[in-house]
Amino acid sequence: MGWEALAQWGDDAARIERLTGGVANDVWSVRVNGQLAVGRLGVRSDADLAWETGLLQHLDREGLTVPVPIPTVDGRLFVDGLVVMTYLEGGPPETQADWRRVAGTLRELHRLTQGWPQRPGWRSSTDLLHAETGTKIDLGAMPAESVVRCRAAWARLAGRQTCVVHGNPNNPGNVRMTADRVALIDWDESHVDVPVLDLVLPGNAADLDDDAHDIAAQASAAWEAAVCWDDEYAVKRLAEVRAV
Protein backbone atom coordinates (compact mmCIF):
# COMPACT_ATOMS: atom_id res chain seq x y z
CA MET A 1 0.00 0.00 0.00
CA GLY A 2 2.91 2.39 0.69
CA TRP A 3 2.22 5.90 1.97
CA GLU A 4 -1.46 5.56 1.10
CA ALA A 5 -1.67 3.77 4.47
CA LEU A 6 -1.21 7.16 6.18
CA ALA A 7 -4.92 7.74 5.59
CA GLN A 8 -5.53 5.19 8.37
CA TRP A 9 -4.39 7.89 10.84
CA GLY A 10 -7.22 10.24 9.83
CA ASP A 11 -8.51 12.32 6.94
CA ASP A 12 -6.10 15.18 7.68
CA ALA A 13 -2.95 13.02 7.96
CA ALA A 14 -0.30 14.21 5.50
CA ARG A 15 3.39 13.95 4.72
CA ILE A 16 5.45 17.14 5.11
CA GLU A 17 9.10 16.48 4.18
CA ARG A 18 11.55 13.62 3.97
CA LEU A 19 13.90 13.30 6.93
CA THR A 20 17.55 12.31 6.66
CA GLY A 21 19.13 9.45 8.57
CA GLY A 22 16.97 6.53 7.52
CA VAL A 23 18.81 3.89 5.48
CA ALA A 24 16.50 0.89 5.54
CA ASN A 25 13.31 2.97 5.68
CA ASP A 26 11.57 5.95 4.08
CA VAL A 27 11.21 8.47 6.94
CA TRP A 28 9.12 11.65 6.75
CA SER A 29 7.79 14.31 9.04
CA VAL A 30 4.00 14.03 8.97
CA ARG A 31 1.03 15.84 10.42
CA VAL A 32 -1.51 13.73 12.31
CA ASN A 33 -4.44 15.16 14.26
CA GLY A 34 -2.94 18.61 13.79
CA GLN A 35 0.33 17.57 15.46
CA LEU A 36 3.83 17.14 14.03
CA ALA A 37 4.88 13.48 14.02
CA VAL A 38 7.28 11.10 12.23
CA GLY A 39 6.23 8.43 9.77
CA ARG A 40 8.49 5.50 8.91
CA LEU A 41 7.73 3.18 6.01
CA GLY A 42 9.71 -0.03 5.62
CA VAL A 43 9.49 -3.72 4.88
CA ARG A 44 9.61 -5.15 8.41
CA SER A 45 7.16 -7.95 9.21
CA ASP A 46 4.13 -7.40 11.41
CA ALA A 47 5.76 -9.52 14.13
CA ASP A 48 8.89 -7.37 14.00
CA LEU A 49 6.89 -4.13 14.21
CA ALA A 50 4.75 -5.50 17.04
CA TRP A 51 7.96 -6.18 18.99
CA GLU A 52 9.35 -2.69 18.37
CA THR A 53 6.14 -0.77 19.08
CA GLY A 54 5.50 -2.84 22.21
CA LEU A 55 9.02 -2.08 23.41
CA LEU A 56 8.59 1.67 22.86
CA GLN A 57 5.29 1.70 24.73
CA HIS A 58 6.93 -0.13 27.65
CA LEU A 59 9.86 2.28 27.78
CA ASP A 60 7.53 5.29 27.63
CA ARG A 61 5.47 3.92 30.53
CA GLU A 62 8.67 3.42 32.51
CA GLY A 63 9.73 7.03 32.01
CA LEU A 64 12.29 6.90 29.19
CA THR A 65 11.87 9.51 26.45
CA VAL A 66 11.36 7.59 23.20
CA PRO A 67 9.26 8.00 20.04
CA VAL A 68 5.83 6.73 21.08
CA PRO A 69 3.71 4.94 18.45
CA ILE A 70 0.57 6.89 17.54
CA PRO A 71 -2.36 4.56 16.84
CA THR A 72 -4.52 4.66 13.75
CA VAL A 73 -8.15 5.74 13.95
CA ASP A 74 -9.09 2.11 14.69
CA GLY A 75 -6.28 1.57 17.20
CA ARG A 76 -3.57 -0.20 15.20
CA LEU A 77 0.09 0.73 15.81
CA PHE A 78 1.26 -0.03 12.25
CA VAL A 79 -0.28 -0.66 8.84
CA ASP A 80 1.48 -2.30 5.88
CA GLY A 81 4.96 -1.46 7.21
CA LEU A 82 4.07 2.13 8.20
CA VAL A 83 4.54 3.33 11.78
CA VAL A 84 3.73 6.86 12.97
CA MET A 85 5.49 8.10 16.11
CA THR A 86 5.71 11.23 18.21
CA TYR A 87 8.22 13.86 17.09
CA LEU A 88 10.98 14.60 19.62
CA GLU A 89 12.72 17.95 19.81
CA GLY A 90 16.38 18.35 20.75
CA GLY A 91 19.91 18.30 19.43
CA PRO A 92 22.73 15.77 19.29
CA PRO A 93 25.24 15.24 22.11
CA GLU A 94 28.20 17.59 21.72
CA THR A 95 30.26 17.44 24.91
CA GLN A 96 31.70 14.64 27.03
CA ALA A 97 29.13 15.52 29.69
CA ASP A 98 26.39 15.05 27.08
CA TRP A 99 27.70 11.60 26.18
CA ARG A 100 27.83 10.64 29.86
CA ARG A 101 24.13 11.48 30.05
CA VAL A 102 23.56 9.24 27.03
CA ALA A 103 25.42 6.42 28.80
CA GLY A 104 23.15 6.83 31.83
CA THR A 105 20.05 6.62 29.64
CA LEU A 106 21.36 3.47 27.95
CA ARG A 107 21.99 1.82 31.29
CA GLU A 108 18.40 2.61 32.29
CA LEU A 109 17.19 1.02 29.02
CA HIS A 110 19.21 -2.09 29.84
CA ARG A 111 17.83 -2.25 33.39
CA LEU A 112 14.24 -1.95 32.20
CA THR A 113 14.50 -4.75 29.62
CA GLN A 114 16.33 -7.60 31.34
CA GLY A 115 14.82 -10.87 30.18
CA TRP A 116 13.06 -9.24 27.20
CA PRO A 117 12.24 -11.66 24.34
CA GLN A 118 14.35 -11.50 21.21
CA ARG A 119 13.12 -9.47 18.23
CA PRO A 120 11.53 -11.92 15.77
CA GLY A 121 14.08 -13.26 13.31
CA TRP A 122 17.06 -11.65 15.03
CA ARG A 123 20.09 -13.22 16.69
CA SER A 124 22.32 -11.87 19.43
CA SER A 125 26.08 -11.68 18.98
CA THR A 126 26.55 -14.78 21.14
CA ASP A 127 23.83 -16.66 19.18
CA LEU A 128 26.07 -16.15 16.15
CA LEU A 129 28.79 -18.25 17.75
CA HIS A 130 26.73 -21.16 16.41
CA ALA A 131 24.09 -19.69 14.07
CA GLU A 132 24.96 -18.55 10.55
CA THR A 133 22.17 -16.08 9.87
CA GLY A 134 19.90 -13.60 11.62
CA THR A 135 17.99 -10.70 10.05
CA LYS A 136 20.63 -8.68 8.15
CA ILE A 137 23.51 -10.99 9.05
CA ASP A 138 24.67 -13.85 6.83
CA LEU A 139 28.02 -15.15 8.02
CA GLY A 140 28.11 -17.45 5.01
CA ALA A 141 28.62 -14.38 2.82
CA MET A 142 31.80 -13.39 4.69
CA PRO A 143 35.27 -14.86 4.16
CA ALA A 144 35.87 -17.77 6.55
CA GLU A 145 38.80 -16.01 8.24
CA SER A 146 36.62 -12.97 8.89
CA VAL A 147 33.96 -15.11 10.55
CA VAL A 148 36.59 -16.66 12.81
CA ARG A 149 37.71 -13.19 13.90
CA CYS A 150 34.15 -11.99 14.55
CA ARG A 151 33.25 -15.09 16.53
CA ALA A 152 36.39 -14.78 18.62
CA ALA A 153 35.32 -11.24 19.55
CA TRP A 154 31.76 -12.34 20.38
CA ALA A 155 32.97 -15.36 22.39
CA ARG A 156 34.30 -12.93 25.02
CA LEU A 157 30.66 -11.97 25.72
CA ALA A 158 29.44 -15.54 26.27
CA GLY A 159 27.45 -16.21 29.43
CA ARG A 160 26.51 -12.61 30.13
CA GLN A 161 22.99 -11.44 30.91
CA THR A 162 21.11 -9.98 27.95
CA CYS A 163 18.58 -7.18 27.53
CA VAL A 164 17.40 -4.84 24.79
CA VAL A 165 20.20 -2.87 23.15
CA HIS A 166 19.44 0.21 21.07
CA GLY A 167 21.92 -0.96 18.44
CA ASN A 168 23.34 2.35 17.22
CA PRO A 169 23.52 4.88 20.06
CA ASN A 170 27.00 6.18 19.22
CA ASN A 171 25.51 7.89 16.15
CA PRO A 172 24.80 11.46 17.36
CA GLY A 173 21.85 11.63 14.96
CA ASN A 174 20.06 8.96 17.01
CA VAL A 175 20.02 11.13 20.14
CA ARG A 176 17.80 14.15 20.85
CA MET A 177 18.92 16.07 23.94
CA THR A 178 17.45 18.97 25.84
CA ALA A 179 18.54 20.46 29.16
CA ASP A 180 16.34 18.09 31.14
CA ARG A 181 16.19 14.84 29.19
CA VAL A 182 17.90 12.48 26.74
CA ALA A 183 15.81 10.85 24.01
CA LEU A 184 16.90 7.90 21.89
CA ILE A 185 15.35 7.68 18.42
CA ASP A 186 15.63 5.26 15.47
CA TRP A 187 15.04 1.89 17.11
CA ASP A 188 15.27 -0.01 13.81
CA GLU A 189 18.42 -1.88 14.92
CA SER A 190 17.26 -2.61 18.47
CA HIS A 191 17.29 -6.25 19.56
CA VAL A 192 18.23 -8.40 22.53
CA ASP A 193 21.97 -8.71 23.12
CA VAL A 194 24.71 -8.11 25.69
CA PRO A 195 24.34 -4.54 27.03
CA VAL A 196 28.00 -3.56 26.78
CA LEU A 197 27.58 -3.43 22.98
CA ASP A 198 25.63 -0.19 23.49
CA LEU A 199 28.34 1.37 25.66
CA VAL A 200 31.13 1.90 23.14
CA LEU A 201 30.61 5.65 23.17
CA PRO A 202 32.81 8.62 22.19
CA GLY A 203 35.49 9.34 24.76
CA ASN A 204 34.55 6.16 26.69
CA ALA A 205 31.65 8.12 28.17
CA ALA A 206 30.32 4.95 29.81
CA ASP A 207 33.56 4.82 31.85
CA LEU A 208 34.37 1.19 31.05
CA ASP A 209 37.67 -0.12 32.40
CA ASP A 210 40.35 -0.99 29.85
CA ASP A 211 39.48 -4.69 29.59
CA ALA A 212 35.71 -4.10 29.42
CA HIS A 213 36.16 -1.41 26.78
CA ASP A 214 38.38 -3.66 24.67
CA ILE A 215 35.87 -6.51 24.84
CA ALA A 216 32.98 -4.20 23.95
CA ALA A 217 34.81 -2.38 21.16
CA GLN A 218 35.95 -5.60 19.50
CA ALA A 219 32.52 -7.21 19.73
CA SER A 220 30.81 -4.04 18.44
CA ALA A 221 33.18 -3.72 15.48
CA ALA A 222 32.59 -7.38 14.61
CA TRP A 223 28.81 -6.90 14.80
CA GLU A 224 28.81 -3.86 12.52
CA ALA A 225 31.12 -5.62 10.04
CA ALA A 226 28.74 -8.58 9.88
CA VAL A 227 25.55 -6.49 9.66
CA CYS A 228 26.84 -4.29 6.84
CA TRP A 229 28.90 -6.87 4.92
CA ASP A 230 30.41 -6.18 2.45
CA ASP A 231 30.32 -2.42 1.93
CA GLU A 232 33.22 -0.04 2.58
CA TYR A 233 32.11 0.67 6.15
CA ALA A 234 31.95 -3.06 6.96
CA VAL A 235 35.46 -3.61 5.64
CA LYS A 236 36.71 -0.71 7.76
CA ARG A 237 35.02 -2.09 10.87
CA LEU A 238 36.36 -5.60 10.24
CA ALA A 239 39.88 -4.15 10.07
CA GLU A 240 39.41 -3.12 13.71
CA VAL A 241 38.76 -6.72 14.79
CA ARG A 242 42.00 -8.43 15.80
CA ALA A 243 43.13 -11.52 13.95
CA VAL A 244 43.00 -14.74 15.94
Automatic annotation (TrEMBL):
It holds the Pfam family APH. InterPro entries: Aminoglycoside_PTrfase, Kinase-like_dom_sf. Residues 16-217 form the Aminoglycoside phosphotransferase domain. This is Phosphotransferase enzyme family protein. The lineage of its organism: Bacteria, Bacillati, Actinomycetota, Actinomycetes, Micromonosporales.
